[in-house]
Amino acid sequence: MADAVDTYLEIEQIRQLKYRYFRALDCHDWALFATCLAEDVTTALDSGKYSFSGREGFVAGLRELMDRPTLLSKHHGHHPEIELVAPDRARGTWYLEDHVIDVENSWMVHGTALYQDEYVKRDGAWQIIATGYRRVFETVTAPIPQQFKLISSWFGVPG
Fold first, then answer.
1. Which mean pLDDT values do the consecutive 10-residue runs of the chain (159 residues) have?
2. In the prediction, which pLDDT does 158 show?
3. Is residue 63 classed as helix, strand or coil in its secondary structure?
4. What does 4-42 look like in DSSP terms, one character per residue?
5. Long-range residue pairs from 143-151, CB within 8 A, at least 24 positions apart, any chain
6. Could you say which residues form the signal peptide (predicted)?
7. What is residue 1's predicted lDDT score, i.e. its pLDDT?
8. Looking at the DSSP assignment, which residues form a beta bridge with residue 45?
9. In CATH, what class is 2-141?
């Protein structure tokens, strides 16, 4: 029974890690986002369209793409399938739903994807060592319809 409990606790820690990853991304909390990643992380987001190597490169790349108050995002990870493959290694599949609004450039994206992650446990904490996703579908609305009104955001209402 202890093994099942230990496995469940490890999987829950990985789930919390991925939830924190999405929250940090949407809140543009780059310091928190960095803590989710192994120093040697590799990425292949959107079937490799956005590929980065290393924690610093990944954080810098996403900051360049997303770090402005006129770019708002929602990333939800659903239905995690997590497998422990060693005491310090795991892999997971997540169903992503995302919605991105670029107020400044007048477009919105809504889509879904399947994330494939690998995790490593170092110094007692799980981190993402490899991550990427492939789109199931993606829709774009551009320009943003005139009847669409942004009335509130984490970053203030762009003007």
1. 83 98 98 98 93 97 95 96 97 98 96 98 97 97 95 81
2. 65
3. helix
4. HHHHHHHHHHHHHHHHHHHHHHHTT-HHHHHHTEEEEEE
5. 143/106, 143/107, 144/101, 144/103, 144/106, 144/107, 144/108, 148/108, 150/72, 150/101, 150/103
6. none
7. 46
8. 50
9. alpha beta
Q: Is 113 left (phi over 0), alpha (psi -120 to 50) or beta?
A: beta
* Number of residues assigned to the chain: 159
Token couple for 47: 């079937």
Token pair belonging to 42? 């590799």
CA 73 to centroid of chain Cα atoms: 10
Beta strands in 58-106 (DSSP E): 71-86, 89-102
Sign of CA dihedral 117, 122, 126, 128: negative
- Which residue type does 117 have? D
Q: Which pLDDT does position 4 carry in this prediction?
A: 85
Give the span between the Cα atoms of 79 and 77, in whole angstroms: 7
What's the token pair of residue 22? 């999405």
